[in-house]
Amino acid sequence: MQLNSTLTWLVDAAGAAPGADRFLAELGAHLIADELPLAGGALTLAVPHPIIARRTWLWRADNGEVIEAVGFAPAGFANAGQKDSAGDAGRRWLAGLAGGMVHEDVVGPGPDGPVLSWIGPRQFTEAEIARWREVARFAAAPLAALSARATLTATLEAYLGRRSAARVLAGPLRRDVGETIRAALLYADLRSFTALSETSPPASVITALDAWFDCMAGAVHAFGGEVLKFIGDGMLAIFPVIGDNPGDACTAALRAVTSAQAGMAHLDETRREQGLPSLSFGAALHLGEILWGNIGAADRLDFTAIGPAVNLVSRLEGLCRPLGRTVLISGAVARELSAKLIPLGTHPLRGIAAPCDVYTVPDG
User: Fold this and answer.
1) CATH architecture type of domain 172-360
2) pTM summary value
3) Per-residue pLDDT for 13 more than 80?
4) Would you say domain 4-160 falls under CATH 3.30.450?
């Protein structure tokens, strides 16, 4: 039995696979074409990620479908060298798929390289196992390229967010690269952070900041937004307008900030039980156009959003303390919402030419 189809594909075309899911599905299809007995397969990759240790893709031979499982690192820190639930889940899934024994190869140098696993409708023969090892040897180069791309993507997503990372990967590294998009903006800022920093040990300050950002960013991501920047103790998030319906983006932003309020209330209860001060904050919502792209020095770029809408939402958040409100909403957002809001009048904003209609949400 020859592996003509499989080895030719691994040498000539596998390196161009757009992702691990397609790589696994196409590899499985070529193996079946080369008449190897297969019920399913799995590919596990270690990835650099704040909370995910490994990602595993599971492939069924009968329908060609691929699903993904993730293994979370203990204590929220990725540790590629540690056994994790994703790899174990892949082996259990394969073992339950058919009656044969799972054959597994670590592809590449070291114990933390990509892992290819296969199972057939019966036990594999020694000759078939030798062919799996040959497949693993030829798969090393394309999987190394795939792992490098996955590592770069995961790293950029961790620092920039999914949408922004995709834009950076797709565009050239130049300052003049960007686009104008319409988005609902959420700007939030922790109050009295300077006093907290002056009176608390650095480790306690970092813990408080992480808890605050966990709460805010978790709510933003839950409702389809993306954190664009952490700015000291502040945060700028965007909810891009899709199509011609800005109301959806505005509603998602409002739901996110409402959810964050509830999360912060729970966090404050926990802090009070620990004898720690509460963490008050202000947040503002605005709708407008932003320039979303690269700025910076010739050889040091930043991917960010700039424009009058960004200036306005940050200035609007600055009214939270004098108006005694946690959440303020611009008239541009209020006009797109069906939710009940409380008008607070029209207010001038520092550095903004036109005064802004300001609203807030009902208490409770």
Assistant:
1) 2-Layer Sandwich (3.30)
2) 0.79
3) yes
4) yes
